Amino acid sequence: THSIRVGQESAKKAIGFIEAITLIAKEEGIKGYWKGNLPQVIRVLPYSAVQLFAYETYKKLFKGKDGELSVIGRLAAGACAGMTSTFVTYPLDVLRLRLAVEPGYQTMSQVALNMLREEGFSSFYHGLGPALIGIAPYIAVNFCIFDLVKKALPEKYRQKTQTSLLTAVVSAGVATLTCYPLDTIRRQMQMKGTPYKSVIDAFAGIVERDGVTGLYRGFVPNALKTLPNSSIRLTTFDIVKRIIAGSEKEFQRITEENRKKQNHNAKIE
Questions:
Q1: What integer pLDDT is reported at residue 126 of this predicted model?
Q2: Distances (CA, A) of 22 to 15, 29, 30, 37, 98
Q3: Among 19, 74, 156, 194, who pairs with 144 as Cys (CB 3.0-4.6 Å)?
Q4: Membrane-spanning regions, if any (predicted)?
Q5: In which domain, by residue range, is 24 found?
Q6: Alpha carbon separation from 59 to 62, 67, 75, 79, 148 (Å, rounded)
C-alpha cells in the first residue's frame, strides 16, 4: 500500500515514504496499511507458482546442444518466466491496485464489476505492455544472478541456507534497482483516467513532472517489500529443489540396492 500510495500521490504533489505512512494512518487508520492485501495474497500464490515452474521449464528449452545453459539462456528463461506469470495473473494485479487506491470499494468483486461496466474487459489488461517490459528484465536479472552466483560458489557453501538467502538478497537488490522505473510507469498506466497512452508517453510525462527522481518515487517501500519477498521465495524454492533432488537420489539408491539383492537371490536359487 505504501509504494502504491506514494506513486499515486506523486501525480498530485511530491510525497515521501514517511509522509505516505502518516497520510495513510491519518485518513484510513491502521487497516489502511493492509488495504488491497487480500487480492495480493490471492495473486501471489499462482504468480509465484507459475513463475518458478515456468523458469525451470524454459531453462530446459534454452539449453544448448551441449546440454549447458548459457548466461543468455538463463536471462531468456527468466524473462519468459516473468512474462508468463505476469500475463496469467495480471487482472488480479489490476484489481489489487484499484482496491488499494480508489475510494468506495470494499471487495474485489465490486471493483471487477465496476470495471466491466464502465471500462470493459480490456481494462483488466491496462498497462500490460509496460508490466511485461518491466518484469522481463527484473526476473531475468534476478534469477540469472542468483543461479550464476550459486554456481560459482564452492560446493560446501552451495548447500547452506544462509548462502541461498544472501545470494537471493543481492540478486533481488540489483534487479530492483535496475528495473524500478519500468514498475513506476506500469503503476501510472494502470490508474483509472491515466493520461498516458504508451510507455514512452508515460516516461516523458513522469520525467517532465517530477524529474528523473520521479521514476524512483516509492522505491524505498517497494524495496522493503520486494527484497524479503523475492529473497524468501527464491531461498525456499532452492531449498525445496535440494530436498527433492536428495530424495530422488536416495530413492534411486534404494531401488538399485533392491535390484542387486533380487539379482543376488535369483542367482542363489
A1: 81
A2: 11, 10, 10, 19, 21
A3: 74
A4: 124-149, 161-182
A5: 2-268
A6: 5, 10, 9, 11, 13
Asked whether 89 and 111 are in contact (CB, 8 A), the reply is: no
Question: What band does 1 get if pLDDT is binned at 50, 70 and 90?
Answer: very low
Cell of 60: 530446459
CATH number at residue 68: 1.50.40.10
Q: Specify the pLDDT at position 86.
A: 92
Identity of the residue numbered 11: A
CA dihedral 138, 142, 145, 149 (to 10 degrees): 170
| Residue 72, pLDDT score | 93
Write down the mean pLDDT value for the chain: 81
Cα separation, 69 vs 175, whole angstroms: 20
Structural domains in the chain (count): 1
Q: Higher confidence at residue 22 or residue 150?
A: 150
pLDDT at residue 140, as a whole number: 94
Those residues with Cβ within 8 angstroms of residue 216's Cβ, 6 or more apart along the chain or in another chain: 180, 181, 184
pLDDT of 58 > 90? The answer is yes
Buried b (16+ CB within 10 A) or exposed e, 45-78: eebbebbbebbeebbeebeeeeeebeeebbbbbb
